[in-house]
Design a protein that fits this description.
It is a single chain. By secondary structure, the chain is of the alpha+beta class. Helices cover about 30% and strands about 10% of the residues. It has three domains: about 50-170 and about 180-225, Glutaredoxin (3-Layer(aba) Sandwich); about 275-435 and about 620-640, Orthogonal Bundle (Cytochrome Bc1 Complex, Chain D, domain 2); about 450-615, Cytochrome c-like domain (Cytochrome Bc1 Complex, Chain D, domain 2, Orthogonal Bundle). The chain has helices at about 1-15, 65-70, 90-105, 110-115, 130-135, 155-165, 210-235, 275-280, 300-310, 375, 380, 390-400, 410, 420-430, 440-445, 455-465, 495-500, 520-525, 535-540, 570-580, 600-610, 620-625; strands spanning about 50, 55-60, 65, 75-80, 115-120, 145-150, 170-175, 180-185, 190-195, 200-205, 490, 505-510, 515-520, 550. Strand 2 (about 55-60) and strand 3 form a beta hairpin. Helix 3 packs across helix 7, helix 9 (about 300-310) crosses helix 14 and helix 20 packs across helix 21 (about 600-610). This is Methylamine utilization protein MauG.
């Protein structure tokens, strides 16, 4: 064994020289010059291929350490090797390529600072920490810049979970008599891992070359820097709400020069807020928050409810959370969908209403079928086309089996565990805390700040309470304003949809920024027929309630497009045009709906006024949402309900 080890160390020493490639026949491309021109750095993308596995290893000092901790939030190259490997196109190749990269770090400070090289042995019986140190000594001439660690594990038992997580198969070689030899049969694979512990590329023998790897690392570094600049730019925008918008509004998408403005989730840094303070002292313009006597508010309930709100494990197949219809940065609704889409892409027939200020709603859902947030929670959880759970008991049993909820309900509810009631109370407590006021309008109207509202918005207010008559349904009080009468009205939108009163051609967005007028007959051939929706009638069975829908609050309305119960209007200007035309005539049209006779300037003033209703604490609520844990099933665990372990990331 000693002689074999010395031979392999000699071979490793020989292979660190590029000139040695001339001595080898059938050597891999990684030993020579790259035979093709690399694409420009940053001109291509490296999508995440999956999560990087973790496990317990022994570092260079022989101390136990998590493999993820060893990455140390840097980009990492991970190679599986063993020191006695004699296949020049196997482990020695990866060490040669790593040596070339390490040498390049002498000339590239960014590479040395941001990239870490790790060679992990899969032969712990031979490759003790001392042996790995001896092996590493061959590569000392690569320079002191950067970091290259040679590590091992305490045993094959400790090694196996790591190998499995990277799908790295090894097999002990045998001699002609069937006796195990010192060698291993394995497929060489080197993994490029980003600071978020995601695999971004996997290099096999034919593609393992230091120039290619450095190009990939530089591309990832450039993209991260660009994302950082985008984030800083977004946070410096002089808008009333900087965080509340889709990551990329796709403007200019149809142009060849388009570059995405989306931000990686990891760059959306959140900051937890003391949400209970908004209930205890509501922002300017809002009345006291109604809190039911059987569910007094507490920080523990809000925190638990927030976790549940963002937990995809509450859906049937563990893929869908409340926040996927009520997206925080999109006004706690979904700006990009007229009507919601649930689990597995199942269509929902109505638009996702905002969660903002739902604490004040006397009726919930567009048809007003629920009266409390605690009851409302269960509708989406059980709806087949939303989160699709088969029963209440199914949901409760799932939560009971998740380790990271252990004790949470008991702590929040004075010893009471998971139940239909406590789950509803927890999520309701979080939703109840999402109160938003202190808008420019509030400071102008209730705070006596005459400079808070521009002249156009002030003219819009006069129209709102006067000529346009909007205040008849969107109430404004002397001390506070909810901008809703908490009632239901027939404006004609539902009637028009039920009667099929649609133009012969309809606009269809085929790509962001690209909309075509498509003949209705074509749409009917390929599209699913619109489901019947008669509004409040479905709740009361009173024919006079056909096509009545709840009056939404107008607070934060500039953030919550598209509008109406079916998301049929994309802009506030379209909404104003609709009401100016007197809605859609039908025998049950609400008498408050009438033609308004507005001119173009007045329409714009009304829009400007509604834009002034964005709350001053919106960014605080969104940043708090960004700080919430996003819970998911464990890696390789498609259905944790069957008893496997669950991890939270």
């Amino acid at each position: 064994m000693h002689n074999v080890l010395l031979r392999s160390i000699w071979l490793a020493a020989v292979l660190i020289s590029s000139a040695s490639a001339d001595l080898l026949s059938d050597s891999a491309p990684g030993y020579g010059e790259l035979g093709y021109t690399l694409p420009a750095i940053g001109s291509y993308s490296l999508p995440a291929l999956g999560e990087a596995g973790n496990g317990t290893v022994l570092n260079g000092d022989g101390k136990q350490q998590s493999l993820h901790d060893l990455f140390n939030d840097r980009y990492a190259l991970l190679a599986f090797i063993y020191s006695t490997c004699s296949d020049v196109n196997g482990c020695p190749l990866s060490s040669h390529v790593f040596y070339k990269i390490k040498s390049a770090m002498k000339r590239d400070a960014e590479l040395a600072d941001r990239l870490k090289l790790i060679s992990l042995s899969f032969d712990p019986e031979v490759d003790t920490p001392e042996v790995m140190k001896l092996y590493a000594n061959n590569f000392r001439y690569a320079g002191s810049e950067g970091e290259w660690q040679f590590i091992t594990t305490a045993s094959h038992q400790a090694l196996q979970p790591i190998l499995q997580s990277y799908n790295q198969v090894i097999q002990r070689e045998v001699d002609s008599s069937g006796k195990a030899s010192v060698g291993y049969s394995h497929v060489l694979r080197v993994f490029l891992i980003d600071p978020q512990k995601r695999i971004r590329n996997i290099y096999s023998v034919d593609f393992l070359h230091h120039d290619l790897i450095i190009n990939d690392v530089k591309t990832l570094l450039m993209q991260a820097q660009n994302q950082g600049r985008l984030l800083k730019a977004a946070l410096s925008l002089p808008e009333s709400s900087k965080l509340s918008k889709p990551g990329d509004d796709k403007q200019g998408y149809e142009q060849e020069s388009y570059v995405t403005r989306s931000l990686d989730l990891e760059l959306r840094q959140g900051q937890a807020a003391d949400l209970i303070s908004f209930i205890e002292k509501p922002p300017l313009g809002l009345p006291p928050v109604p809190v039911p006597g059987n569910n007094p508010i507490s920080r523990e309930k809000i925190e638990l409810g927030r976790k549940l709100f963002y937990d995809r494990r509450l859906s049937l197949n563990d893929t869908f959370s409340c926040a996927m219809c009520h997206v925080p940065e999109q006004g706690f609704t979904s700006n990009e969908l007229a009507m919601a889409v649930g689990i597995e892409g199942r269509s929902v027939r109505r638009n996702s209403p905002t969660i903002y200020n739902s604490a004040y709603a006397a009726l919930l859902f567009h048809d007003g079928r629920e009266q409390t947030l605690e009851q409302q929670v269960w509708g989406p959880l059980l709806a087949r086309n939303e989160m699709a759970n088969p029963s209440i008991g199914y949901v409760l049993e799932k939560i009971r089996k998740i380790d990271d909820y252990e004790g949470s309900f008991e702590a929040a509810f004075d010893g009471r565990g998971v139940s239909m009631e406590t789950l509803g109370m927890a999520i309701a407590s979080y939703e109840r805390a999402l109160v938003s006021g202190s808008s420019p309008f509030d400071h102008w109207y209730y705070g006596d700040d005459k400079q808070a509202l521009p002249a156009s918005a002030q003219r819009g207010f006069e129209l709102f309470v006067g000529k346009a008559g909007c205040v008849a349904c969107h109430h404004i009080g002397d001390k506070h304003a909810l901008f809703s009468d908490n009632a239901l009205h027939n404006t004609g939108i539902g009637y028009r949809e039920s009667m099929g009163i649609v133009p012969e051609t309809q606009p269809v967005t085929v790509a962001p920024g690209v909309t075509l007028q498509i003949d209705r007959s074509v749409i009917e051939q390929v599209g699913e027929p619109a489901p019947t929706d008669v509004g409040l009638y479905e709740v009361t069975q009173n024919p006079n309630d056909r096509w009545k829908y709840k009056t939404p609050s107008l607070r934060n309305v500039a953030l919550t497009a598209p509008y109406m119960h079916n998301g049929s209007f994309s802009t506030l200007r379209e909404v104003v045009e609709f009401y100016d035309n007197g809605g859609v005539a039908n025998e049950l049209l609400d008498p408050l709906i009438r033609p308004l006779g507005l001119n173009e300037s007045e329409k714009q003033d009304l829009v400007t006024f509604m834009q002034s209703l964005t709350g001053g604490n919106v960014d605080t609520l969104v940043a708090d949402a960004f700080a919430a844990p996003v819970s998911d099933v464990g890696k390789g665990d498609p259905s944790w309900v069957h008893g496997t372990d669950v991890e939270v990331r």
